[in-house]
Amino acid sequence: MEYDLSVKNVTKKFGEFTAVDSVSFDIVNGHFFSILGPSGCGKTTLLRMIAGFEHPSDGTIEIRGQDMKGIVPNKRPVNMIFQHLALFPMMNVAENIAFGLRRRGTPKNEVMPQVLTMLKRVGLPGFEQKRIDQLSGGQKQRVAIARSLILGPAVLLLDEPLGALDLKLREHMKVELKKLQAEIGTTFMYITHDQSEALVMSDYVAVMNQGRFEQVDTPSNLYNQPKTPFVAQFVGENNAWSGVVEKREGNIVEITTSEDHQFRVEVSEDINPSSTVDLFLRPEALLIEPDPSLTDINRFDVVVNSILFDGASSRLLVNPLNSDKEIIVALPQNKQYDHIKPKDKLVVGWSEKAGICFAKR
Hints:
A six-stranded mixed beta sheet has the order 6-7-8-3-9-10, sandwiched between helices. Strands 13-12-11-14-20 form a five-stranded antiparallel beta sheet. Strands 15-19-16-17-18 form a five-stranded antiparallel beta sheet, with no helix packed on it. It is an alpha+beta fold. Helices cover 24% and strands 35% of the residues. It folds into two domains: 3-234, P-loop containing nucleotide triphosphate hydrolases (Rossmann fold), CATH 3.40.50; 239-359, CATH 2.40.50.140.
């Protein structure tokens, strides 16, 4: 298997502070790889080390098998796109895209054919004479990508490039970037704190927390099979309880939560009686008025606090009876729930296979 980027046990310290703590990963040729994490987790520092703007305190960075130690940024086979695209306003689109080629010393008669070819690849044929201020936000993104890709990088590094766009354009550009990367085939390494961006676009996602990777996996596995409580909380919405295991029968444990609910949960790891656990449950796993004949359902009574209408993503905010704990319940789209009003009492339930349980360490 060919790797465009291999990071091995990379650490970065600033004095006594460890920003990146022994991180290792490989990116397969042509993949879209994202690093997802909150502000301050170390993801931008890691990106800057790959680009050559920072030097690792320890570990190695290899691009297409070549150790990058001692190689300055402009000699590395990577290009970087920032949130602020840094397009040159005094140049037209063609001049912006051609800038790197001209600095590289590409013969004049070869520059414009390459520019026109790249404009077609990013879906902007005929835009070569347009001024930057004539472009939409999405078109500027494409020009910035074209300007980077025309130099033939092994890896394109993107540092929250959609952060400055409005919500609707950001949603559109998530899909466009994924399609563009698939068409062009260049390896993308994408940095974001927005889980939706990472899940929609990526082949693999690394969830980063306090300088370390918590889990590197496919978007589907991160969402459905988180390996740590941090990943469960950070990726997607979750309802959470703390509790104590009262008993275990095979793979089923019975938990009493701090709110005195008794829940049965299927577990795979070694969780034993008297263990203190964290339990996570996706809003879409909660059933409204579940069929009474189902035997593997945890049921409890709730009061509707509010209804959050958001089309296909509409939800209920509910409180268990005699509790101020707020629980999110997704409203399925294949059933009508228009009759539900604030202050209504409902029964909600969830399958004992739907919960994700972690023993507290």
